[in-house]
Amino acid sequence: MKTSNSSLYALLLPLVLSISIILSGCANKPNSTPNSPLQLVTFEQRTEQLKNQQQWQLQGKIAFIQQIESTNKRESATITWQVNENKDTQELNLTSYLGMNVLQLISNKKQHLIQVDGKEYQGTNLSELIYSLTGLILPTEALVFWIKGIPFNQSDELKIDAKTQLPISMSSEYHNTTWKINYHNYRPFNDISMATQLTIKKEDLLIKISIKNWSFTE
Question: What are the structural domains, with CATH classification, of the chain?
Answer without folding.
Answer: 6-217 (2.50.20.10)
